[in-house]
Amino acid sequence: MKAITFAEYGDPDILQLSDIPDPKVGPGEVLIRVRSAAVNPVDWKVMKGYLDGLMVVDFPAVPGWDVSGVVEAVGPDTPEWSPGDEVIAYARKDWVHGGTFAELVTAPVRTVARKPTSLDWHQAAGLPLAGLTAYQLLARLGLKDGETVLVHAAAGGVGLFAVQIARALGARVIGTASEGNHEFLRELGAEPVTYGAGLAERVRELAPDGVEVVADFVGGVLDVTQAVLADGGRHGSIADGSVAEAGGLAAWVRPNAEDLTALGDLADAGKLAVPVAEVFALADAAKAFELSQTGHVRGKIAIELSA
């Protein structure tokens, strides 16, 4: 099969379009014929070696964890799925090797959910990792109907999901972003505030008594979080481990089919949109990584595969 591979750590120019063997399908796994694979910042961070102290990489490795596609085959003891099922997955395994930037990928059933019918292949591929990151952080912080949540980096790849999920839960959302993204946040249902000097004061103008929950998707904003958090409030971050020392939650996303199904249900109920910024061919994966590295993409970047 065709796949994007890298044989060592480095920049996007190390990515190669390669012919590699089809993956074996083990017990409790499904083989997915990939229709689209989304690019996330973690993909190029793995490629650069930034996660070398955390995850084993088996070279040559195929990057990518987000996927939408059709079940091609199932392994032993896999009653949940059948060939022909349309699915999505946050197909992260315990090590980095056989990722989603390929014509075929295997995924453990714990990572797989049905594809939302309201989303096209690229939108569906863009949902799992970023959507789960937002969903799981808000769930672990116990965000409830009627509460106010401050979302740091609300227009970013994870923040835009957090805004929509929080609104679906009935929360009031204040979101930080550059002024150019304020109208976008209003469309998602958030009250935008400009980040930078004076942010805490601007948030306090909107929520004089403070906010019950703060969800940080950018890092480096603990001082603002502490300044605007109401007494007894909860806060967490996916980007700043130091929040744990300040009574917050340092979070990491995990594959979870039940959570992914809940996200798909929100999408099909019209409560969760997945904007797609740009779509690349498999052979242009390096260009997709370069675009992601700019940090100025509003929406998901997708890699298109089989039709």
TrEMBL record:
Keyword set includes Oxidoreductase: yes
In this protein, which residues make up the domain named Enoyl reductase (ER)?
A: 10-303
| Keywords per UniProt | Oxidoreductase
Give a single Pfam family match: ADH_N
Superkingdom as given in the UniProt entry? Bacteria
Q: Which InterPro entries match?
A: ADH-like_N, ER, GroES-like_sf, NAD(P)-bd_dom_sf, Quin_OxRdtase/zeta-crystal_CS, YIM1/Zinc_Alcohol_DH_Fams
Q: Give the PANTHER family listed for this entry.
A: ALCOHOL DEHYDROGENASE RELATED, RETICULON-4-INTERACTING PROTEIN 1, MITOCHONDRIAL
Query: Would you tell me the protein name for this molecule?
Result: NADPH:quinone reductase-like Zn-dependent oxidoreductase
